[in-house]
Structures are given as C-alpha cells and as structure tokens.
Design goal:
Distance between the termini: 24 Å
Number of strands: 9
Order of helices and strands: HHEHHHEEHHHHEHHEHHEHEEHEHH
Strand order of the largest sheet: 5-9-8-6-7
Structural class: alpha/beta
Radius of gyration: 46 Å
C-alpha cells in the first residue's frame, strides 16, 4: 500500500477493522473537549446600538468606535457597575464596530446573559455621556460662540434683505424686479449655508447621539459552546486516528509479494500455501491486562492485511502443501531432515508450518512413488534477537512467513541466524489466509481425491 494512492476502500478498511480503537479515541477526544469547557466556562455576548445623527465619514465613525472602547469610557462603566480598580478586566470583554447607517454597535461579554446585557447597556450610556461631555464642556469657547454670532448676523442680514425688498418699487420697473430677485437668491443662499453649517457642526452631531434601546438578552452562549467543544474534540480525535493509520500504512516498507520476501531471505521461493482465516489462538504468555486490551481494540491483528479470499476448499489447500513437499524432496538429495523456521508472533505462518509438517508425514507414511522420508520440525525464532538451534541431524532450514508482516531487515536477520547455526536456507514458503466455503463445509472431499490430485507430475510443474 505504500506506493498506492489512498482510496476510499482503504479508509473503509480502517473503519471496519479499527472501529473499536477509533471509538475509544472519539470518546477520549469528547472528554478532553468537556474538560476544556469546564476550564473555560461559557460566555454570553449582548449588543447595544448607538445612533450617530448627521453626516459622518468612515474614518470619523472608526474614531467613535475606538472612543467607545477607550479606557475613559470603560473605566467609568466599571465604576458604575461596582467593579473594583480600573476597567482593565472589562476592556478585553468590550468591543465596538461601526456599521452602515451611522450606527456604533457596542458588545459586552460576561459569564451570564444578565451581566452581558447590563455591561453592554452601561458602556453604551457611558459612551454617549462621554461624547456629550466632550462636545459641551471640553470645546474651545471661541469655537462654541463663533457659530452663534454667525447665526445672529445671518438673521440680521435676512431682516435687512426684507427691508430692502419692501423699499424697492415692486413691479413698476425692470430694475426693481431684478433687485428683488437678487435679494431672494441671497436669502436662499444664506439659509442653505446655515443648514450645511448646522449639519457639519461636530458638537451638534455628537450631542445628538442616541442609544437605540436596551441590549437584547442573549439566548445562547457565544462560540465555542460546551457542545461544540465536545463534538469538536470527538471529531478531531477520530480524524487524527484515521489519518494516523493511513500515514503509518503509507510509510510501511514491509515486503508484500512473494519475490520480495524471497529476495529478503536470499533463498528461492518454493510456493505459497493457504490457511483458514481465524483469530490467532491465545498463547499462555498473553493473558495480561495489556494483551486483553489489545485484543479488545483489535490491535493484535493488522488492519492493512489483504482481505482473505472467499474460496479455498480442503482439497485445493492440501494440494499446495503437497507440491511444496515434492519440491523439497527434489532439492534435497541426501537426508531429508529440515528445520521449519517460523518468525515468532506470525500466527498464520505457524499454522501453515504445522500443516506442512502434517502433510509431509502423511505423504511419507503412505509411500508415494518417488517420495522418500521427509522429516520436518517447527522452530519459532524471535525476530528481535533471532536464534536458531545448532545443526545436528537437520540438513537445512525452510523459512515460512506471511506477507506484509515483517520488514526486509527482520527477514534478513532470520536468514543470518540460520547461517550462523550452520543451516542452509533451502527455500521460502509464503503463507496466506482464505475463507472456507460454508455452503460445502458439510461435504468434505474424500482423502482419495486429494491424493489423486497430488501426483508427482503436478507437484514439480507449474506454480504453487
């Protein structure tokens, strides 16, 4: 799988063979999310709106939003709410932004809906009061009295224009009509200029700020809520578990094909054999709590192993074993005593080796034509520290391994251990798993059928 593109079938295999482990990871992630919600209690956010009448530029609105969250406003809000010290604690829980329509939205965040509503309303009122105070008491006296003097002069000018219009001879001469028209245009121009002056007066706009009602009490907590943290933690742990499986399989460098396994051991391939797919038997040393947990989570079997084929009857499987025995007899001219070396922990290879020993003994006892005695003895070798018994009466070693279980370095270590003990590796047998045909399990083929198929000509020819 390390060279293949990750497909949906691979993800489905992870979900099917590691669903217990993924479920445990999701539960752990949900517990972590719940713990985070306990450490960080839920927050509620309320929003109050302040209307700024008149015409404002965008940068002026941004300035007003900054003033709403300034220390001058927040400190006064903290004092009115009975907070000790300055408003440094509230400053991180108050926000303001300018929206369309000259509206400043002031938000307050607290641990309960009531306190959030009270905080937003208080900051909005303090902002309006602070802006009015700046407009009324903090302005320059000359700047305040200047527009009033100008309005008085404009009023006097309007009265003078009215007097001049009345004094002119109305409608009798062309000059009088032109004079009255010019005076009316002047009056209109002065009125428009005063309207623009009133609209552009910042003191008038600031003093006219209005809080648009109390802030609405929030119905739910601000994100992330406790539910979001729990669901997010479970989903994140689940995805990390799936991604971890895919990443581990992507970097897996274990040989999976028969030629790769034979090349790692440095010996010819004698054939492939099949065993029935079943859970590995519990060994005496695997009764501890750690092993029980591994079996419960499904960690005792590899998830990325190829799915067992859905065919394989007893006669067909025995033919493969007899072909391997026939090839061994052809390769060993002298005494036919071999050690069947099985990597410790490879349950599929162990069961295949035991079946191979049984088939070799059966063929020798029946005295098939051209078949001499073939004595096989199974030896388990740990791959971490491989050790093979010294050579006594055995004339070589036969290595049996399953595909995709061991790395090339581990298989090479087993071959070196055989060479150190004086055993020549005469061949390699690769074991796989198949599923028995349940529909025909009651009718087991007779033994004569298996013997009729296992003739010498078929054993030495063709691929096993």
């Amino acid at each position: 799988m390390n060279d293949d593109t990750i497909r949906l079938v691979t993800i489905g295999r992870v979900l099917r063979r590691r669903w217990r482990l993924l479920t445990v990871l999701a539960v752990v992630g949900a517990l972590v999310g719940y713990g985070a919600s306990v450490l960080f209690p839920p927050r509620y956010t309320a929003t109050a709106s302040v209307l700024l009448p008149g015409q404002w530029e965008d940068r002026e609105l941004l300035t007003q939003a900054e003033i709403a969250t300034s220390s001058a406003v927040v400190d006064r809000a903290a004092a009115s709410l009975g907070r000790r010290g300055d408003g440094g604690e509230l400053r991180d829980r108050v926000g303001a932004k300018a929206t369309d329509g000259n509206i400043i939205k002031i938000s307050g965040t607290a641990g309960s809906p009531e306190r959030a509503q009270r905080l937003a309303d208080r900051v909005a009122r303090e902002f309006v009061a602070f802006a009015a105070r700046i407009a009324g008491g903090g302005a320059d006296p000359e700047a305040v009295t200047g527009p009033e003097d100008l309005r008085r002069k404009v009023a006097e000018t309007n009265r003078r224009i009215t007097e001049l219009a009345d004094a002119a001879d109305p409608g009798r001469t062309v000059e009088s009509v032109q004079a009255r028209t010019a005076l009316e245009k002047l009056r209109t121009s002065l009125e428009e200029a005063m309207k623009k002056l009133d609209q552009a007066d910042p003191a008038t706009n600031t003093a006219g700020m209005v809080v648009m009602g109390p802030a609405a009490r929030p119905d739910g907590a601000a994100p992330p809520t406790r539910t979001q943290l729990v669901v997010g933690g479970a989903l994140l742990s689940f995805l990390l578990g799936v991604i971890g499986h895919l990443a581990a399989a992507r970097v897996n460098r274990r040989p999976r094909t028969e030629p790769e396994i034979a090349a790692a051991l440095g010996s010819p391939l004698l054939g492939t054999v099949d065993v029935l797919d079943e859970r590995p038997a519990r060994r005496p040393g695997q009764a501890g709590p750690r092993d029980r947990v591994r079996r419960f989570l499904g960690l005792d079997t590899r998830w990325d192993a190829p799915a067992p084929q859905r065919f394989g009857d007893e006669a067909g499987r025995r033919v493969r074993y007899r072909r391997v025995c026939a090839r061994l007899r052809d390769r060993l001219p002298g005494p036919r005593r071999l050690l069947v070396v099985v990597p410790d922990g490879d349950d599929v290879a162990r069961r295949a080796a035991e079946q191979l020993v049984a088939e070799a003994g059966s063929a020798s006892s029946e005295g098939s034509p051209g078949s001499g005695p073939l004595l096989l003895r199974v030896v388990r070798v740990p791959v971490s520290q491989p050790m093979v018994p010294d050579r006594d009466t055995a004339s070589g070693a036969l290595v049996v391994s399953s595909a995709g279980t061991w790395t090339a370095e581990e298989l090479a270590g087993v071959a070196e251990a055989c060479a150190d003990s004086g055993h020549e590796v005469v061949g390699v047998v690769v074991a796989g798993t198949v599923r028995a045909r349940t529909a025909r399990s009651a009718g087991r083929p007779p033994k004569d059928t298996a013997l009729a198929l296992a003739v010498r000509g078929q054993a030495t020819g063709g691929s096993a």
